[in-house]
Amino acid sequence: MIVVFLGPPGSGKGTQAARLAQRAKIPQISTGDMLRQAVADGTELGRKARAIMDAGELVSDDIIVAMIEARISAPDCRDGFILDGFPRTAAQAEALERMLASRGLKVDAVLNLQVDEDELAQRMAGRARQEGRSDDNPETIRERLRVYREKTAPLVDWYSKKDTISSIDGMGSIEEISGGIDRALAREGAAA
Predict the structure, then answer these.
(1) Is 183 marked active-site?
(2) What CATH number should be reported for the domain whose range is 2-185?
């Protein structure tokens, strides 16, 4: 099972992807986590990515695509994986399609978490206080939402044309949202 989570920053993609990964017993691949780890480790990628992430922008497609290609080649991805934070642009979605096709695979389901912007801003501000994330300050939050609307939101239409997307109400409790995800996967024939 290969699942892609879409949704704006703060919509709960990471929380829900982790829950689904645990239920399905496949890895969650979070580009945000991978980049934050590279920053924490002080790697060359981390140094490059930090300034971009702190400004609320997206790290370049070539860097992200290479990271994902290396990660999905790992043995633990043999039975599937969940992508959280990738793809974020149409170019990344096309690269993912090519990567998967070269392995005889395809995306089984795309789950789009929908949350209103006021709630997103509150969630990210709370996350910044709890986790100390530099990419969740008020200015960066506004920029991240602008970048999402401009570059990532069009993926909803892109995947709609492929008939693999389900929209999930991301405004309920964690358990309610998980239930919506399970129902959407069952409709897609990709249940965990």
Answers:
(1) no
(2) 3.40.50.300
